[in-house]
Structures are given as C-alpha cells and as structure tokens.
Amino acid sequence: MSDQVEKVVIIGSGPAGWTAAIYAARANLDPLVFEGAVTPENQQKGTLPLGQLALTTEVENYPSWPFADTEALVGLLRSALPPERFANVEHLSTSGPERRSIFGPELMELMRQQAMNFGARVITDDVVRVDFRVHPFRLWSLGGKEVQALSVIVATGARANYLGLESEERFKNRGVSACAVCDGALPRFRNQPLVVVGGGDSAMEEASYLTKFASKVYIVHRRDKFRASKIMQQRVLENPKIEVKWNRVVEEVLGNDEQGVTGVRLRSTVDDTREELQVAGMFLAIGHTPNTAFLEGQLELTDKGYIRWTQPFRTCTSVEGVFAAGDVADDYYRQAVTAAGTGCMAALDAERWLAAKGLL
Ligand SMILES: Cc1cc2nc3c(=O)[nH]c(=O)nc-3n(C[C@H](O)[C@H](O)[C@H](O)COP(=O)(O)OP(=O)(O)OC[C@H]3O[C@@H](n4cnc5c(N)ncnc54)[C@H](O)[C@@H]3O)c2cc1C
Q1: Per the residue annotation, which of 126, 179, 327, 330 is the catalytic one?
Q2: 179 lines ligand 1 (CB under 6 A)
Q3: Which CATH architecture has domain 5-160+288-356?
Q4: CB-ligand 1 contact for 322 (6 Å cutoff)
Q5: Which stretches within the chain are classed as H helix?
Q6: In the chain, where are the structural domains located?
Q7: For the domain 166-284, what is the CATH code?
Q8: To the nearest whole percent, how much of the chain has pLDDT over 70?
Q9: What atom in ligand 1 is closest to the CA of residue 16?
Q10: How far is the CA of 234 from the centre of ligand 1 (A)?
Q11: CA torsion sign, 319 to 321 to 322 to 324?
C-alpha cells in the first residue's frame, strides 16, 4: 500500500463518475478514478469502462448534442482525443448517415477526456473490496492495488436485466432496448407495433410512454396479473393502443441483419402453445441490478439494493465522507443527464465535507 492518501477516489466511469471527476479536478482535489476493468466477466455483464452509454448507438437527449454532420462530429472527436482513444471510436464513423446524433461511446470518450484534461488520474481496474469502517477509507482493486482515501464517490451504475436469449443479444441496438425514454422516439420505432416485456410499474410506464410513437404496444407478462400499482395498471388497461399478452414469455426475438427486429415468438406459460407477433422493437422492463456487490453491505441500501441517499437533495450515504451518484443510487430517473447532475453534486458534497472537516 502506498503512503499517499487520496483526497477523493471516484469508483465508476459513466456520466456520474466523469462529471464528479471534472468537478473534483477543477476544485484541486486531484481525483483518482477507478474506471472498471476490461474483463470477460464485465463484458458479459455489460459493465465495461465508460458505462451503460457505451452500449448504445445514438444519444438524442443529452443536452448540447443536436443532430450534426457526421464529418463534423468525427473532426471534433479527432481533435479532442489522443490518437489511441480516437482509435476506439473511429470505426463508428466509417458508415451510416451523413447527419446523426452523437453515439454513446463517443460521448463517453469525450467526458473521460474532459476529466483527464483537468488532471483526473485514471486506473483501468475494478474496485473489488472497500473498508469504510476506518478513516482514511481503504480500497482494493482486482489487480491488487490498495489505496487510502479521505472521501469516496461511488458511481458504479446499474445494469439492465435482459432475458438472456441469444437472439436478444444479436438485436441489441437494432430493435432490442432496455430504455423506452432513451430509444422510443428513434425513427425505427415510429408508427410500428412494439412489445414491452414485464409486469411491474416500469413496464406500465414504458408501455404508456411508447404509445406516443408506436402504432400498437403489446405487453408480454408471464403471469395472469401485474405486480404494478393499481393506478398504473388501470392506465395501461384502459389505453386502446395497448394489448396485454398474459401468461406468455418471449421465447425468441425474430429478425434479420437488414431490418433488425421484425417480431417475437411467444410461448404460453400455461399450455405450451406458441404464437408470433410482428413488431419492430422489444423493450425489456424486467428491472435493473445496481453494481453494489463490492460494498459487501458497508453502505445502507434501499430494499431494491440501490445505495440509499440519507439526506434530501444531497448525495450523502450512511457513511460520512462516502457519497453516491448516478444510477447506483437512483432507480427512478436513470438518465445520463441525471447521473451527470448527481455526479456534480457528489463532487461538491465531497469538497464541502472535506473542507468542513479541515481535511483540505
Ligand atoms: C442501451 C442503453 C441505452 C441508453 N440510452 C440512453 C439515452 O439515450 N439517454 C440517456 O439519458 N440515458 C440512456 N441510458 C441510461 C444511461 O446510460 C444511464 O442512466 C447512465 O449511463 C448512468 O450513468 P452512471 O454514471 O450512473 O453509471 P453507468 O453508466 O452505469 O456506469 C458505471 C460504470 O462504472 C464501472 N464500474 C462498475 N462497478 C465498478 C467497480 N466495482 N469498480 C470500478 N468501476 C466500476 C463500470 O464500467 C460501469 O459500467 C441508456 C442505457 C442503456 C443500457
């Protein structure tokens, strides 16, 4: 273990982590960011460095990134990133439309670079263990590094749950999505029949939201009643554009390389019969898993497993000096811009806490 005690360590590399790093670096806190490890396990879970946005194509709702000339976007990326990082996103620009929104991986590379330009130091590794019972806090990485920190910002995000079908994996970003608010308005889904999988409040919300764009929305639910609150159910059941397929599961996503998703095959959970629905998209609403396992219960969590914010409008957690930002503490908004917003708050909260404790 090095004798150096970090002022702030940031764990995580989505919009929350990089925004926290930008603010902390500009406040002279010299932040150290653990951006996650590049391992087959993280690849499989969808938790590689750069977070969830690195898994998507166009990001149309992050403010200040309008539809732009592809050449101009590529030019900006080339000028903003060092060659080895530009190489990570160069392939995105080699085909596709002349005008488009920024792609998720591009946006994340820019955020990372912005943090590094202000002096954030980055370690490409997972934090696998922490000790928040001592101060300075102690953290251990997968590669065996041990660091001490006066304050910590946990921004490890969450991952969407998928059904685990091979065909679903094949059509991710080509009709399969886990976020209606993010993707529902994309041209590929407009005036098309769509399917939502799930039976809780988020399935109801996603289905209602999608009726703004879709010609029809099916909800596929494996039971004969929803888990969702009564009011949400009622809204869905009264919506003429929504049809519920009770007691059914998606057995396969159908499609081809040219069009992406063209349908789903359903299997009944009561009698093994099958049917096919022609749809242009499948939206999963079967929950998220927050990335909190490495905390081993040292921070208070909500009953859904998210880190509990312990004060209103602050990013404080149950341990003084440890702050949380982004989707790891927010199962409600789950947007890049809200994650970035709470990342900013966490850095300011950490700075003020360190100052109040006379630790700066
Ligand atoms: C397919 C898809 C499309 C989306 N599209 C949009 C969109 O268009 N607009 C929008 O606003 N939102 C969109 N979202 C949601 C958005 O991506 C999230 O709300 C946002 O990324 C959350 O940011 P975050 O910083 O909290 O964490 P995340 O983006 O979840 O990133 C956290 C990262 O931290 C790292 N990490 C995790 N554990 C550890 C650890 N132990 N040690 C070190 N590092 C760790 C991992 O690399 C992980 O990926 C989309 C999500 C998905 C899945």
Answers
A1: 179
A2: yes
A3: 3-Layer(bba) Sandwich (3.50)
A4: no
A5: 15-26, 40-45, 70-80, 83-89, 104-117, 166-170, 180-183, 201-210, 230-237, 336-356
A6: 5-160+288-356, 166-284
A7: 3.50.50.60
A8: 99
A9: 25
A10: 32
A11: positive
Residues in the chain: 360
Q: What is the pLDDT of residue 1?
A: 62
Reading the block at residue 178, the tokens are 């886990």
Query: Model-level pTM?
Result: 0.90
166-284: same fold as 5-160+288-356?
yes
Q: Measured between alpha carbons, how far apart are the two ends of the chain, in Å? A: 22
Indicate the top mutation candidate among 173, 179, 337, 338 to test ligand 1's pocket, ranked by most ligand atoms within 8 A of CB: 179
In 3-state terms, what secondary structure has residue 343? helix
Active site includes 182?
Answer: yes
**Does residue 224 have an active-site annotation?**
no
Whether the CB of 342 sits within 6 Å of ligand 1: no
Please report which confidence band the pLDDT of residue 57 belongs to, taking 50, 70 and 90 as the band edges: confident
Q: Is 179 a catalytic residue?
A: yes
Q: What is the pLDDT of residue 118?
A: 98
